[in-house]
Design goal:
The structure is a single chain. The chain is of the alpha+beta class. The chain has one domain: 4'-phosphopantetheinyl transferase domain (Ribosomal Protein L22, Chain A, Alpha-Beta Complex). It has three helices and five strands; from the N terminus they run E-H-H-H-E-E-E-E. Strands 1-5-4 form a three-stranded antiparallel beta sheet, with helices on one face. It has a two-stranded antiparallel ribbon with strand order 2-3. A hairpin with a 2-residue loop joins strand 4 and strand 5. It starts with a strand and ends with a strand. The mean pLDDT is 94.
Amino acid sequence: MIMNIGCDIVENERLLNKDKNFINFVLTKKEQKEYKERGLLYLCGRFAAKEAIMKAFSNTKELNFLDIEILTSNDGSPYCVNNNKLKISISHEKKYTIAFAIVIS
């Protein structure tokens, strides 16, 4: 079994006033719907998680933000659509958001 790990941290204020172009660059259409309901911390979490995922896959494939879709399960936990070998965790604390991604193959 091979395990790759990625981690990313974001200062929330850094993403506070991002324009529509940035949102379209980072979030899929489904994610944008959740973002409109949940706001800044949602954006920070998805951005950090996607960066962590790209780091975890850095040796195996090239990804961009829209290649990755992270939705919210019924229990509130994030999950990556179409990849059951990928586990992610997102946490928020005051000014920061951190995400971890683990790929098991």
